[in-house]
């Protein structure tokens, strides 16, 4: 399966016209929409507040370049309550995010797109798993990507040193992806901002500020553009299995 090569994006926004979508709609029942979901939250002193959105969009764009999917613009604010102690962080409730995803899926089905893959860039969006489970129980075609296993495969393939546990926030993976896709967005300092806090058992009760002063948990100094490129390539390859599950091969 391969992309058409004709789609492009302006920043975070897909550049499709309605005619582009119509042309791809010959097998409309087999179409799959891809929705990046990011966040607007602190990522330490060197990564932008929009990091999770940039990462989700990078993953979604890699997918759209490899497969004939319907790429949607991102949801840019989500459930970042664990980061509320830092200026700039903005959140919506889990109820609101649940409703937004449901409304988007319903709208897509009315236009003939029966399957939706949510590409999640923020680990705190726990409710997305509930949305997918509930939708699947109703017989709808929905998936959440990437799974932890997909990230682990990508981590190993890219030669990422830190584990997924240690690389929790603004660490090696996120820094690598932005060094590859948006190097102009990084501020100086990631090379000297490593901070490890593997025991975060009370995170939901106490928030991130109980475990880090800088907002960083991970080892961003190990990030590289080469790792970022390989991470995205691996995730794109892993996406093929999701098309199979959704019956859209």
From TrEMBL:
Q: Name one GO biological process term.
A: riboflavin biosynthetic process
Which GO terms of the molecular function aspect are on file? hydrolase activity, acting on carbon-nitrogen (but not peptide) bonds, in linear amides; metal ion binding
Question: Any idea which UniProt keywords this protein has?
Answer: Hydrolase, Metal-binding, Zinc
State one Pfam family annotation.
Creatininase
Q: Which Gene3D superfamilies match?
A: Creatininase
Task: Specify the superkingdom.
Answer: Bacteria
What cofactor(s) does the depicted protein rely on? Zn(2+)
The keyword Translocase is assigned to this record:
no
Instruction: Identify the stretch(es) annotated as Disordered.
Output: 1-23
Per the record, the similarity remark reads: Belongs to the creatininase superfamily.
Under the heading PANTHER family, the entry gives: 2-AMINO-5-FORMYLAMINO-6-RIBOSYLAMINOPYRIMIDIN-4(3H)-ONE 5'-MONOPHOSPHATE DEFORMYLASE (PTHR35005:SF1), 3-DEHYDRO-SCYLLO-INOSOSE HYDROLASE (PTHR35005)
Q: What is this protein called?
A: Creatininase
Species, as recorded: Streptomyces davaonensis (strain DSM 101723 / JCM 4913 / KCC S-0913 / 768)
